[in-house]
Amino acid sequence: MSVADTGGVSTSYNRLQQLKSFDESKAGVKGLVDSGITKLPQIFIRPPEELAADNQTPSQFTIPVIDLKGVSGDRSKVVAAVREAAETVGLFQVVNHGVPLKVLEETLTAARQFHELPQEVKGEYYTRDKMKKVKYGSNFDLYRTRYANWRDTLLCVMGPDPLHPQELHLVCRDAIMEYSRQIKVLGSLLFGLLSEALGLNPEYLESIDCAKGHSILCHYYPPCPQPELTLGTTKHSDPGFLTILLQDHIGGLQVLWQNQWINVPPVHAALVVNIGDMLQLISNENFKSVEHRVVANHRGPRVSVASCMLLHS
């Protein structure tokens, strides 16, 4: 019986060799799926004790959905809703946020099309060079974690120094550049609301450069042959100030609330907003940087696009 059958982790295999083989293929998780695998490679299998501890039914708590249309009317109600969500859950969804539905759809399509490029084309962007502003890869922390995540990523560093469009592949260039422009506008609105939620001038958070650094991460989660044995993204909190997430219809995002995993269901035309570690810090712990993860799924590919407002050296 294989390790994948048992859900255990063997110590008899050469983990480093398998990690290097996966990394050097430059094919990512999608490459494994394209090769026709039916069992999860051992480097992706979660430790037995983690699997055993994760046997709970997700809570039915409802994630707040905030209608930003109200900012042009009774702004105080929107500020109050943002304050409550930021202080209690650390995450909320926004609708009527000003980013056109067409832009959302084109961004998800572009992200998917990049990850589905021929391997010889996509592989040219595969790198672990931290200085590259555009890079494709799988598991940025591949060699440092106990197990790999079932996810590939295209990272685009959009600011503080503007990204030259030619650095992006043609298949996603226009969509990502336009989405970045739209998200910067929304980010400015959100930082204003969050500033007011702290009892500060609306311009405060932007004035201390919270919105200066900006990266876009296009995540691709292929269908997984044994999703119960791994994760799409391991539990973590975001290191920056704020993350704005565009997710497709498949779902899988969960947040940790009162020691229970809460599903963050896709809402049509909505964007997910979560507080990061830096914003928790500068808010004197008033805002909560929420831990979250993405579960693997038989369905797929799942596509999401995370826009992270962060400090950037």
UniProtKB/TrEMBL annotation:
Keywords: Iron, Metal-binding, Oxidoreductase. The keyword Transcription regulation does not apply. InterPro entries: DIOX_N, IPNS-like_FE2OG_OXY, IPNS-like_sf, Oxoglu/Fe-dep_dioxygenase_dom. The keyword Nucleotide-binding does not apply. Its cofactor is Fe cation. PROSITE patterns: FE2OG_OXY. GO terms for molecular function: dioxygenase activity; metal ion binding. Residues 212-313 form the Fe2OG dioxygenase domain. It comes from the Eukaryota. Belongs to the iron/ascorbate-dependent oxidoreductase family. This is Fe2OG dioxygenase domain-containing protein. It comes from Arachis hypogaea (Peanut).
